[in-house]
Amino acid sequence: MGSQPGVELTMAKCNSCGAEIIWAHTASGKAIPLDAEPVPFGNLVVVPGADGPRALSVNIPGALGPRYVSHFATCPNANQHRKPRDGQSGLPGVA
Fold first, then answer.
1. DSSP calls for the chain
2. Residue-wise pLDDT tens digits, 30-51
3. Whose C-alpha in 1, 31, 65, 75 is 20 to 30 A from the C-alpha of 14?
4. Per DSSP, what are the bridge partners of residue 80?
């Protein structure tokens, strides 16, 4: 598992599929699970943040280092963990 210097990553397991993940925070402060292993096609890098590891888009200038992907993109049970968007119930076919 690679990371930027100064970033301490803590391993965890996904509660629904059992995959190894790491937790980071988005630029807006929301927690985001990342697949534990970096991948060449990843769209996020992990950098130090005031509240722990911070996941930044690779499109942000200076975002260098191993690339990760959100576990929501790879977890077979991701829909169980998504929060409904405003105005949606979270149930299929129900607004």
1. ----TT----EEE-TTT--EEEEEE-TTS-EEEEESS--TT--EEEE--TTS-EEEETTSTT--S-EE-BGGGT-TTGGGTPPPPTT--SSTT--
2. 889 999 999 988 899 988 887 7
3. 65
4. none
91 vs 73, more confident: 73
Measured distance CA(82)–CA(16) in Å, rounded: 12
Nearest C-alpha neighbor of 15 from the set 88, 91, 83, 71? 71
User: Does 4 have pLDDT greater than 80?
Assistant: no
Radius of gyration of the chain (CA): 14
Residue 18, exposed/middle/buried by CB under 10 A (0-12, 13-18, 19+)?
exposed
For residue 79, name the pLDDT band (cuts at 50, 70, 90). Answer: confident
Structure token pair of residue 12: 């965890």
